[in-house]
What does this fold into?
Amino acid sequence: MKLKAVILVGGPEKGTRFRPLSLHLPKPLFPIAGFPLIHHHIEACCKVEEICEVLLIGSFQANDALKRFISREKKLFQKPINYLQEYSMLGTAGCIYHFRDVISNGQPDAFFLMHSDAYCDFPLKELIDFKEKFMPYLMMTVKLPKDQTLHYGCAGINNATNEIVHYRDKPASFVSRDINAGVFLLDFSIFETIGAHFQSKLTRNMSFSGLEEDSMDKMNRHNRISFESEVLPKLAGTGKLFAYRINRFWLSIKSAGSALYANRAILDSYRLKHPELLTEQDNCRGNVYIHPTAEVDPTALIGPNVTVAAGVIIGQGVRVRNSIILDAVELKNHSCILNSIIGWHCVVGEWARVEGTPTELNPDAPNATTDSFYLFDKHGKLLPSTTILGRDVRVPAEVVIRNSIVMPHKELHRGFQNQIIL
It folds into this structure.
């Protein structure tokens, strides 16, 4: 079987919940456990022999950072990896329909469709083995706690046949604990379904008169096609859409805070997949990744669940736990970083403390997402969560920053708690 893989990376209009970390770098390129987020998706695809090409589709500008990343991935995995840029946001179905000729080039038998913000130990080989000829479209599903399902696409599944008989995207009331896990294996007949829907939608929108710019922009928005909210509900109950249920760790990476738990999960996976990436030193505890160019004083205590990026300087007596330290950060002597993400080029002063509230999964529901869908409680107060310092933030000596989000290029002069510093 010959396959391709398509990874949807979104665009600058998406990923707003990932701010301030996505203000200077596209969310798919944000480093988690030492590598950009979509590196882990590409690695999973390149391990499957049947996949002959990996395509990234999004509306980000193909800037130098993206070009360098793709070039490195090509050299690392020795497979064709290409980026296809949308001229505007076309929707999750519209973008693959727009590039249908590129995806079908070379006459592959089917293709994987993956969302870049869903992470797990991707069972791509198992999906190939599970798919039968009478299953044109296969969707990976996972069970979530009932109270979290309203934020995802929910599938009603026939337990005897695994057919998806009902599908609602982000329903107003409870439908099912089985949710769309963001990985599909699709036959190319899917483009006929999307094309028919596009034509009917285009016909409805032809009532626009004139070519005024605002009318054309509005028409483009109307012509976006969502795979989840428009295509999947039509396929459910037709005998064409089937579920592959997984019972393993799965995580939706929507907010900056969830990146911290993804960091923990990926570092843990390195124990089996890439033990050479974990740093084994006397001052490290648990799973720790330290870039070779980072300077860490031997009296500092690092870990568990810590990533230290390139060019970081960590001084004497520093304590770092359950955190991501991004490029060129300086942590001065005896500072303490707990449950936080420290942005590029930040400086944390001596004896300063930057601390967030850790998020733990329910051990009886290992597939639960760690996303905080609401920043504020009903009284308007910021909910305790991961502390995030944006790019180039200066924290003075001997202050405490707790459960706060600091926007880029800020020089703080005092401590903060439960604040968003704009």
